[in-house]
Amino acid sequence: MLAQRVLASFQHRYGTNPLLVRAPGRVNLIGEHTDYNEGFVLPAAIDKEIVFAVALNGLNSARLFSLDKAEACELPLGAAPLQPGATLWANYLLGVVAQLQRRGVAVPGFDCVFGGNVPMGAGLSSSAAVECGLAFALNELLHLELSRLELARLAQQAEHEFAGVQCGVMDQFASLFGQAGQVVRLDCRSLEYQYFPFDSAAYHLVLCNSGVKHSLASSEYNTRRQECGQGVAVLNRYYPQVRSLRDATLAQLTQHQTELGEVVYRRCRYVVEENQRVETAGQHLAAGNMAAFGQQMYASHAGLRDDYQVSCPELDLLVELAQGQPAVLGARMMGGGFGGCTINLVPAAAVPGFIAATSAAFQQHLGRPLETYQTTIVGGVSVL
């Protein structure tokens, strides 16, 4: 068991009894590339997690140990402001400490061992789980009484400044605010949120890893952000209330299609339609209509493939294979795109058959095995 391994490693290294905290990864059921357009997302925390053992050590340094990499790192917590270092995994933790210091917290020396089963590079937000887990543990140990929302923002800033990734707040939010058997719809502008029921016993979320690394993702991600910004600039001249694509309508886009140009028009159309899909998907969940919810997932993938153009042949193949199996209710690519995983909505009883059929067809088409992960929806960051 993961928690026991982390605890044993901590006690062996440091000889004291730590606080144990678990921080889950997340999936996003629908609402992709909407977060930086101030739109809506529908994530959930999942049972792939990172466990932390943390205790104050009475020293002026942080002693960190990554169980998965079997690497240690010790850093002074003196007067000088912390800077990102050469040990990449440690930067996610350092970023959290730096954000606490910036808020006037004198972070004392501490020991930390952490390890997890969140697959790296699969788009399950292992980095957010690392940041949120340590932020939560230090909040507990130092009695800071920061709210979960403050911890999410702090973890997001840590990723911006110490990992160089300009992420939205969805990943950190989902890790901290997850609830078992619920998905959470987050308004990325106001940070208001609402829970919707998801029967995790009856329906499973199966992830299929395309095996393609997101080599294009960061450069194309920035391009997509610029294209959305161009669309907003055009619309804003005619409709001053349009501050982001969150405020735009399909009628407005159609009215100014020529001025927007074909590419920007399609990017904007996707975002406006995807926000509507999140809204509709929430209504289907509330009504318990999982088949209708799944159709929104398929429509989301089609938009990402054709209008936003961030899919790849391997992701498209996986969605086609899912669509060919009547038991599967919905599937789409998840995350920034150009690789990573598809997320598939499958009745629990049909999961073994789905994995077997998809794995065989994937192997036949691409000549390599398919990695899959079965997940269920769990609660957010907590003390063990």
From TrEMBL:
Residues 9-55 form the Galactokinase N-terminal domain. InterPro entries: Galactokinase, Galactokinase_CS, GalKase_N, GHMP_kinase_C_dom, GHMP_kinase_C_sf, GHMP_kinase_N_dom, GHMP_knse_ATP-bd_CS, Mevalonate/galactokinase. Its EC number is 2.7.1.6. One of its GO terms (molecular function) is galactokinase activity. Pfam families: GalKase_gal_bdg, GHMP_kinases_C, GHMP_kinases_N. Residues 91-179 form the GHMP kinase N-terminal domain. Belongs to the GHMP kinase family. GalK subfamily. This is Galactokinase. It comes from Hymenobacter yonginensis. The lineage of its organism: Bacteria, Pseudomonadati, Bacteroidota, Cytophagia, Cytophagales.
